[in-house]
Automatic annotation (TrEMBL), chain A:
Keyword Membrane: no
The keyword Hydrolase belongs to this UniProt entry's keyword annotation: yes
Stated family: Belongs to the DDAH family.
Keywords: Hydrolase
A GO molecular-function descriptor: hydrolase activity
Protein name (record): Dimethylargininase
InterPro entries registered for this protein in UniProt: DDAH-like
TrEMBL record, chain B:
Positions with biased composition (Acidic residues): 146-155, 163-174, 785-796, 855-869
Biased composition (Polar residues): 833-845
Entry keyword set: Actin-binding, Cytoplasm, Cytoskeleton, Phosphoprotein
Superkingdom of the source species: Eukaryota
Location (main, coarse): cytoplasm
GO cellular component: a single term: cytoskeleton
Subcellular localization, as worded in the UniProt entry: Cytoplasm, Cytoskeleton
GO molecular function, one term: actin binding
Chain spans, region Disordered: 1-179, 520-565, 751-878
Comp. bias regions, Basic and acidic residues: 40-52, 71-85, 97-118, 127-143, 546-556, 818-832
Native organism: Pagothenia borchgrevinki (Bald rockcod)
Protein name per Swiss-Prot or TrEMBL: FERM domain-containing protein
Length: 290, 1028
């Protein structure tokens, strides 16, 4: 397919800074606010992540300034699904997050991506919710986790947007998000957590796919979210949680041969249910047609 | 129904065609139809009264005809009517074949359908072999004299045939020429002329094709007419569709009368792609790809095949390139041109601009290449080849069921919500408007489950069911399934897929040997600039004289060396839907024809009188050579040493009755002839061997570079030689040697299939047994019909019998057995990964310790092997007794002295009844020599892979014991089969170990001609017995 090339080639990363309101989620999740998050630490970790993406991996980084009005805007992954030269601006589950899309929309159009909207609240896609952290693109197909934040209608919109690809829905257990329990670890490798819920999801993925993926299981949920990028010189980079955060999984990553492993801390964001990949949108502006 | 007959005759036709075609090309006539037609007409006149159609009817048909014709003339049944009519009307061989079957059917009218079906399926199994045979006969090897005759007259006949075809195309029947012999048929036909119907077939390019068929004609008659009109040979991917009385699109069943299917007397059909090849690049001919492109363009434009904006644009640009040629900047208003074409359901200016933009980048691309690119992109679309059916799930929710090459997909509003791959489906059935699939239990489940869907009505349920049956058969089976077996489908109608499977059609395609037919792309009439004189892609070699695209030449170059040197390897074709790995498969398949020819001619060639050095030896000596030489030396020294009782005797053999102490002289006497005959055989077959291994080398060489997505099969042969000196004093020299021959060849096995040339299990006979091209492709080995295997096995057996055995050998075997088999054990066995035949051949010999790895195939037992089994029971352990690591890679193997006590202890329990005194076991000298081929790298060790199957088979016959360990690993998308053979040669000092070793290696190679040896480990063990 025109857009079908092995997973992992990216040229740009879009991130959004951590606002001062970090951790002060709006709405009923006041209790969550009590989980002590350290703003400074989160910002430091964010800095490490972006630094790794830019300097180690060599991506062009586009950083959208933080907006204190949007305490969750740093979870930029949620607001768009980008594949090839198409960006689908999603409709997050939380009403108050939907305005986060504006800045992202601007950036992706500047990147010359074809911007696709979810459509009006009413109409065909009415009631559809979709968040990028429930979408796993493997290079060959999409898996959409049906979770508390993403529903079938949202997945349908995704399928309608990316018509070249099979879009399969998989269940996500325990309030998690699909990307919390799995991520791509290579063009053909899925890293997935060893938890029961993840296993269930994996079984479904295996059942639904026409392709064969290598599976790297890691004992901890949080370790399953990594960022894989094939660098300019075809070198494999994997950003993963450091051993301090996921002691049991560190050895698993060693199995990935010839990878440059970039341990990247993400403890603060993960306290809020986010993960490494939540913090960035990856774009490939260099796709070829052949 | 006419599968087998059809393809056989078709192949014949092809053979003839090639002859004719070369002839034509000599005349430098670019196969303009008129020319041939004229030629044909001339010929026809010449010999018309006398011969007529009968000349190109297959001989068997002639015979049958002459037998039955008196009866037939009186028969006024519909059957004979239609039969004759078809014979008349159909110069197409398939139709002849069809008619022939009907001939049979006439005999027993009631069981007509049944018989016809069973007939075809019974022989379908052996079809590949038949095809080979046919090919052979085309080469004038006197298999059937009649056929040879045909082959000789092939040119002539071909011309006639073409002429006939042409004439018929024009006159819509042209039977008049053949009155003399076929009077009665003709009469009947004339009568039937009243009952002709005019069919209107809409072709893929939008044009209509009209033809008259007899009203009673079956679907395939019309289909063949259309294919003939299109000049299409790879026709199995296509079908005729009609709209039934309920406005539903249905596939015309080729085996049934058209009239009964269409109902409304509306003789309108559409020629469509029925099975979308998962990898169109494997199609042999451009014309096939072109037709597939036409279908896909329509699918895309109509929205049936959804794709994104970019993909629409890209596909559109390739369409434009193929149809309009290069982008012309000075073309006044290119957009107008584009606007006339429909590329997408919601085509807009933006898309057209994008199409034009991309079109510019395709400059210089030939139409054929543009088609290929189109298909390469289209095939990756997730809905490519998915046939959607509306349904409701058990809860009444609207869903879509998609049938495709891989299985059954369940969609809900574009979202894939479930998928049932064919291997997971045990049964498909329908009842009223319900459609059921029975699912194989998963790893975690215990019971099979049945999933039900509701369709709109009974008819749609049946239609879906039929589509499933056909798709499963086509993509998944080796040969169409016999209805009687009904393993896969039990309920419902008797309907089965009757055409060729993808596997079969690929084989057939690989035999297509005609120049690429000229065809015009619809739009290319408008601007044929780039079509004219543009190089065309030639897949078949026959086209090499055509101007070829240089870079495509490169592609084909990678193949031609193989052919030139004649890789003498039987590559078992894999016919799974190998999306990524198919390429090789097909390439390899293409060689198959030439390979088998070579092989055959080779077999026919007289063996050179001087014994030639074994190819293996050559290889050894040429590379890490010293191995064998060293062995020889060792051997000598070993023989000088005193040895006591052979270990293996202790273990395996000692369980035999006390009679074991048979007089030694007998043994020796027996031994010698045994070994000599072996040697003789070796000599005789040496040339073959050479050929084989040369070919193997070749294959690995040539394939290596083109390693796109190939599966590597590795074979390891371990030969172990044990010498026994069966002296009364129980002193013997044992020099066990182990030779591991690992072959590695790139063969195209995606998952499970490797069709194996099987050799009968007697070692001596095997040596002379022919390479019998039993194509047995097991796609999904759980679904291999047992009967097929049995038949094939039987055939082999026959072959084996015909081969002269070493005269004294059979007797020897028995003797040896009685004498507790002390002396030389020679082993043979045809083993290959998952090959059903060979697996069975060796079943039951799995080593205990490795039995966990035994594959499912073991269930499929075969009686034929039983006698062998008897011999081997209890002996398998001998082999098992050598779990030595194959260690050292060097030319100077270190000599390690070890005690073999462990082993003997292991089997101490068995040696209860040794008649003589306890045998002392002393030293053992063990030498391990490893030879590794250079290309071993990356195979095997340490690589993460998924073990698919592993099996161990042990068998032994005369003087060798072989343990075959088959391991399958899946690395990424590649499946690798690695066969490790451990061959134990047991013999006393009199044995020429070199010879035995060479022999063993040779046999191993013969058994796995499609593999290459990557490693040889010679492990020589000598027992230095201390006499007390």
């Amino acid at each position: 397919m025109a857009n079908m090339c092995p997973y992992g080639r990216f040229t740009h990363a879009v991130v959004r800074g951590i606002p001062e309101t970090f951790g002060k989620a709006v709405g009923d999740s006041r209790k969550n606010g009590e989980t002590s998050v350290e703003l400074a630490k989160a910002q430091r970790q964010f800095g490490c992540l972006t630094g790794a993406l830019r300097q180690k991996v060599g991506l062009q980084l586009i950083e959208i300034p933080p907006d204190p009005e949007l305490p969750e805007s740093w979870r930029i992954e949620d607001v768009a699904v980008i594949q090839g030269d198409t960006a689908l601006i999603t409709r997050p589950f939380k009403q108050q997050r939907r305005s986060e899309a504006e800045a992202v929309r601007k950036v992706v159009s500047e990147l010359n991506l074809t911007v696709v909207e979810m459509g009006a609240e009413e109409g065909d896609s009415g009631g559809a919710t979709l968040e990028g952290s429930d979408v796993l693109f493997t290079g060959r197909e999409f898996f959409v986790g049906i979770s508390s934040h993403t529903n079938h209608r949202g997945a349908e919109v995704l399928a309608d947007t990316f018509r070249d690809f099979a879009v399969s829905t998989v269940p996500v257990c325990g309030g998690a998000r699909l990307r919390n329990i799995c991520s791509m670890g290579g063009p053909n490798t899925i890293i997935i957590s060893n938890s029961d819920g993840a296993k269930k999801t994996l079984r479904m993925m295996e059942q639904l796919t026409d392709h064969h993926y290598e599976v790297l299981t890691v004992p901890e949920d949080s370790a399953a979210n990594c960022i894989y990028i094939k660098g300019p010189s075809k070198h494999d980079f994997l950003l993963h949680r450091p051993a301090e955060e996921c002691p049991d999984s560190a050895s698993a990553f060693q199995k990935l041969q010839d990878y440059t492993l970039l341990p990247t801390a993400c403890s603060e964001a993960s306290k809020l249910g986010a993960s490494l990949s939540s913090l960035c949108l990856l774009v490939n502006r260099k796709h070829t047609y052949f | 129904m006419t599968t087998e007959v059809g393809s056989e005759t078709e192949v014949k036709e092809k053979a003839e065609e090639s002859a004719a075609e070369t002839d034509q090309s000599e005349k430098a006539s670019e196969e303009a139809p008129e020319v041939t037609a004229a030629e044909g007409e001339e010929k026809e006149k010449d010999g018309k009264e006398g011969k007529g159609i009968a000349r190109y009817l297959p001989t068997w048909l002639k015979k049958q005809k002459s037998q039955t014709s008196p009866t037939k003339e009186e028969l006024t049944t519909r059957e004979s009517d239609s039969k004759d009519a078809q014979e008349e009307d159909g110069p197409v061989p398939e139709v002849n074949g069809h008619a022939e079957e009907e001939n049979e059917a006439v005999k027993s009218d009631q069981v007509k359908e049944k018989e016809a079906e069973s007939h075809s399926t019974a022989s379908a199994d052996t079809e590949p072999a038949k095809e080979e045979k046919v090919e052979e006969s085309a080469e004038k090897s006197p298999e059937e004299t009649a056929v040879t005759e045909e082959g000789e007259g092939a040119e002539e006949e071909k011309k006639e045939q073409e002429g006939e075809g042409e004439a018929q195309g024009e006159e819509g029947g042209g039977e008049e020429g053949h009155t003399s012999i076929f009077q009665s048929p003709l009469r009947l036909v004339r009568k039937n002329k009243m009952k002709q119907a005019v069919c209107l077939v809409t072709l893929l390019d939008g044009t209509d094709f009209t033809c008259e068929v007899e009203k009673r004609a079956k679907g395939q008659f019309l289909f063949f007419k259309v294919c003939e009109h299109l000049n299409l040979m790879e026709k199995d991917y296509f079908g005729l569709a009609y709209i039934d009385s309920h406005e539903q699109k249905c596939w015309l069943d080729p085996t049934k009368e058209i009239k009964r299917q269409i109902r409304s007397n509306n003789w309108q059909f559409a020629f469509n792609v029925k099975f979308y090849p998962p990898d169109p690049s494997l199609l042999t001919e451009d014309i096939t790809r072109y037709l597939l492109c036409l279908q896909l363009r329509e699918d895309v434009a109509s929205g049936r095949l959804p794709c994104s904006f970019v993909t629409h644009a890209l596909l559109g640009s390739y369409t434009l390139q193929a149809e309009a040629g290069d982008y012309e900047p000075d073309q006044p208003r290119p957009l107008d041109n584009v606007g006339q074409l429909t590329f997408a359901p919601n085509q807009n200016k933006e898309m057209e601009e994008k199409i034009l933009e991309l079109h510019k980048s395709h400059r210089g691309m030939t139409p054929a290449l543009a088609d290929i690119q189109f298909l390469e992109n289209a095939k990756k679309l997730s809905m490519y080849g998915v046939d959607l059916h509306h349904a409701k799930d058990s809860e009444g929710v609207d869903i879509m069921l998609g049938v495709c090459a891989n299985g059954l997909l369940v969609y809900k509003d574009r979202l894939r919500i479930n998928r049932f791959a064919w291997p997971k489906i045990l049964k498909i059935s329908y009842k009223r408007n319900n459609f059921y699939i029975k699912i194989r239990p998963g790893e975690t489940e215990q019971f099979e489950s049945t999933v039900g869907f509701k369709l709109q009505n009974h008819r749609s349920a049946k239609r879906l069911w039929k589509v499933c049956v056909e798709n499963h058969s086509f993509f998944r089976l080796n040969a169409p399934e016999p209805p009687a077996k009904a393993r896969f489908l039990t309920l419902g109608s008797k309907f089965r897929y009757s055409g060729r499977t993808q596997a079969q059609t690929r084989v057939a395609s690989s035999l297509i040997d005609r120049p690429e037919p000229c065809f015009e792309r619809t739009a290319s009439k408008r601007s044929s600039r780039s079509l004219d004189g543009a190089p065309r892609i030639s897949i078949t070699e026959a086209t090499s004289e055509n101007g070829r695209d240089p870079h495509l030449d490169l592609l084909s170059d990678s193949k031609s060396p193989n052919r030139v040197h004649g890789d003498n390897i039987y590559v078992r074709h894999s016919n799974l839907m190998l999306e990524d790995h198919d390429k090789t498969t097909d390439e390899v398949l293409k060689h198959q024809a030439s390979i088998s020819q070579l092989k055959r001619s080779f077999m026919e060639a007289p063996p050179p009188s001087p014994p030639q050095p074994n190819q293996w030896e050559k290889r050894l000596t040429s590379s890490p050579a010293p191995t064998i030489r060293i062995q020889q030396q060792q051997q000598v020294s070993l023989e000088e040493e005193i040895a006591s009782v052979l270990l293996s005797r202790h273990s395996g053999y000692c369980s035999a009755p006390p009679a074991c102490c048979t007089p030694e002289p007998t043994l020796d006497a027996d031994l010698t002839p045994g070994s000599t005959s072996t040697l003789a055989a070796t000599e005789e077959s040496a040339p073959q061997l050479e050929d084989v291994s040369a070919a193997e080398n070749l294959i690995s060489e040539t394939k290596e570079p083109a390693k796109t997505a190939e599966v590597e099969i590795e074979e390891t042969v371990v030969v172990q030689e044990v010498s026994i000196a069966p002296k009364p004093g129980l002193v013997s020299v044992t020099s066990p040697q182990e030779v591991a021959v690992e072959k590695e060849v790139v063969v195209t096995v995606e998952t499970k299939e490797a069709k194996q040339e099987s050799v009968s299990s007697e070692s001596e006979s095997e040596e002379e047994a022919e390479y019998h091209p039993n194509v047995s492709v097991s796609i999904c080995h759980t679904q291999i019909p047992e009967e097929e295997e049995e038949e094939e096995e039987e055939k082999e057996e026959e072959k084996g019998v015909s081969v002269p055995d070493g005269p004294s050998l059979p007797a020897e075997v028995e003797e040896e057995e009685i004498e507790k088999k002390k002396n030389v054990e020679e082993e043979v066995e045809a083993k290959s990964n998952n090959d059903p035949i060979t697996t069975q051949a060796t079943n039951g010999h799995t080593l205990p310790e490795e039995s966990g790895l035994a594959p499912e195939e073991e269930e499929e037992e075969e009686e034929e092997e039983e006698e062998e089994e008897l011999k081997m029971n209890g002996e398998a352990s001998v082999v098992e007794a050598e779990p030595r690591p194959l260690v050292i890679c060097c030319s100077e193997p270190p000599v390690v002295k070890t005690e073999m006590v462990t082993i003997s202890d292991t089997f101490a329990a068995q040696k209860t009844e040794i008649a003589t005194k306890e045998v002392p076991i002393v030293h053992t000298e063990t030498k391990t020599i490893t030879y590794e081929a250079a290309q071993l790298d990356g195979n095997g060790d340490g690589e993460p892979g998924v073990l698919m199957t592993a099996q161990t088979i042990t068998s032994e016959s005369l003087c060798t014991t072989t343990t075959t360990h088959i391991t399958k690993t899946l690395k990424g998308g590649l499946s690798e089969t690695r066969i490790e053979k451990r061959i134990v040669i047991t013999g006393d000092c009199d044995i020429d170990h070199d010879q035995a070793l060479a022999q063993a290696i040779k046999e191993a190679k013969e058994q796995h001609p499609d593999m290459s040896v990557t490693r040889v480990v010679v492990h020589k063990e000598t027992e230095l017995a201390e006499e007390d």
